Amino acid sequence: MSVNVELATRRGRETRTVQTSATSLNWCCSRIITVDDGLRQLTGLRRLQLFTNELEALPSSLLDLHTLECLDVSRNAIKSLDGVGRLTALTVLLANHLPLQALPRDLGCLRQVVHMSVANCGLRSLPASMGQLSCLETLALHDNLLSWLPCELDRLPARTRIFLRGNQMPIKIVENRPPFNSRPVLPDIFANTTRLEMLRDSAMTLAIGLQDLELPALVTLEIIDAAWDNDVRMFAKWQIVTTVKHFHDK
């Protein structure tokens, strides 16, 4: 059996006939703008290459391909990867050279992903949920605009290779010879970071958990400060304590 998939391209509309049993598609360099719902009928698809096209968003039909293991959407005009967390079978995600600036929280749902590359995407921040990627072996973040990392990244496996060159980290990143791995220097990056965002999610969770003990606010602050040894100023951490206390007292 086969299915017709309609594509809108810069050359006009195209119809591509694909066997429903197909496990791999290579539609790179085709000037594709949109893909219609016919794509979701390819329920056995495992590999999809859409790099170097003109997509402005992830096709909604693509997000229903729950058997997909490898996805390459590099070099498109995609501004958001929202919904990609639904592709829970993914082991490889390549999304380089996209105008993203940020990544979605649901990225942390990709628990099977082994290789992830989001290089040269203008990223200024990463979601704390990325620390949940327990199978991750390679994380390519080079040539973005990152000046801090969420402390949850330290939960990644010790074997994970992280490429950070070309960012604005608080310490100099030396990746001028193999293995080009910044994973061992994550503690140094955290220790020299001044941005509260680095620890906001984890510190907020800890502060909420301490509320039932009815500790004085200053004691909670001391616990948070001891939990994260870094250059984030105390008054910034105090904001977390007072915010949690304010909502707890309501």
Please supply descriptive tags for the structure shown above:
single chain, 250 residues, alpha/beta, 2 domains, 7-stranded parallel β-sheet, 3-stranded antiparallel β-sheet
Descriptive account of the structure:
The chain has 250 residues and is an alpha/beta fold. It has two domains: 2-193, Alpha-Beta Horseshoe (Leucine-rich repeat, LRR (right-handed beta-alpha superhelix)); 198-249. 18% of the residues lie in helices and 16% in strands. It has four helices and ten strands. The strands form two sheets. Strands 3-5-6-7-8-9-10 form a seven-stranded parallel β-sheet, with no helix packed on it. The radius of gyration is 21 Å and the shape is elongated. It starts with a strand and ends with a helix.
Please identify the top-level CATH class of the largest domain: Alpha Beta
Structural domain tally: 2
Low-confidence regions = none
Strand content: 15-25%
Number of helices: 4
Radius of gyration over C-alpha positions, nearest whole angstrom: 21 Å
Q: How far do the termini sit from each other?
A: 61 Å
**Main beta sheet:** 7 strands, parallel
Class inferred from helices and paired strands:
alpha/beta
Number of strands: 10
**SSE order:** EEEEEEEEEEHHHH
Spatial ordering of strands, largest sheet: 3-5-6-7-8-9-10
Shape: elongated
CATH fold-level name of the largest domain: Leucine-rich repeat, LRR (right-handed beta-alpha superhelix)
